[in-house]
Specification:
By secondary structure, the chain is α+β, with helices and mostly antiparallel strands. The chain has eleven helices and four strands.
């Protein structure tokens, strides 16, 4: 079984790529860097009408979009990887809660802050205000999650799930790991453990290289 992923370095597709890497499932990557240009977004349109990555094409030719949906679907297809609590597991409710919380509360902020002119036009002062307020909102949401979870070695216990992957990748985006560790120190420790998984040692440098401001 081989999947095709449409994605870009440092983007939300990295979460899906990391999950497939941990699953040991082969995939083919089509790089479309939608955050670079309108031309790249047009290239993405046939695969996702929202012109965003990631998109995953199954072996049967079905296209899936929305990172949380893709992750949940993959864990159902590959339960042997143990990257999600199965239905009936007492951890399942909180897994679904937080797997949806990040793309619902945090991820949309980047559509706004990455190109503030989408909402406030070319006013530079207004754009700066949008960037500052969305950074505060992202930090606030991480703090909310921090206050509602009780992590062990990982968020749901002693073994990693795709939820941990989501946190580890999304926390590298603005306002970056330094502030993330301030508002969510226990989640920060979980993210560092995901960063250090030996199975992903070759993956991170290729798909989301570390920089100094990711360290708290």
């Amino acid at each position: 079984m081989t999947y095709t992923i449409y994605g870009a370095v440092g983007s939300g597709s990295v979460i899906v790529e990391a999950a497939l890497t941990l699953m040991g499932v082969p995939y083919r990557l089509e790089e479309i860097v939608t955050y670079e240009s309108e031309a790249e977004r047009r290239r993405m349109a046939p695969h996702n009408p929202m012109r965003q990555v990631p998109a995953l094409v199954t072996a049967q030719g079905e296209t899936l979009t929305e990172s949380a949906a893709i992750l949940l679907w993959l864990t159902e297809q590959h339960p042997e990887a143990n990257l999600a609590p199965p239905p009936g597991d007492p951890r399942r409710g909180q897994f679904l809660r937080w797997l949806n919380f990040i793309p619902a509360a945090i991820y949309p902020m980047y559509w706004v802050r990455d190109v503030p002119s989408r909402l406030v036009g070319e006013d530079e002062a207004a754009q700066a205000q949008v960037r500052a307020r969305t950074a505060d909102r992202i930090a606030h949401c991480w703090g909310v999650m921090e206050g509602q979870v009780d992590p062990g070695r990982f968020i749901l216990g002693d073994t990693p799930t795709v939820l941990d992957l989501y946190v580890a990748v999304a926390s590298r985006w603005t306002p970056n790991r330094a502030r993330f560790h301030q508002v969510a120190p226990r989640l920060g420790l979980v993210a560092r453990r995901i960063d250090a998984l030996p199975e992903l040692a070759d993956f991170w440098p290729r798909r989301f290289p570390f920089e100094g401001n990711y360290v708290g």
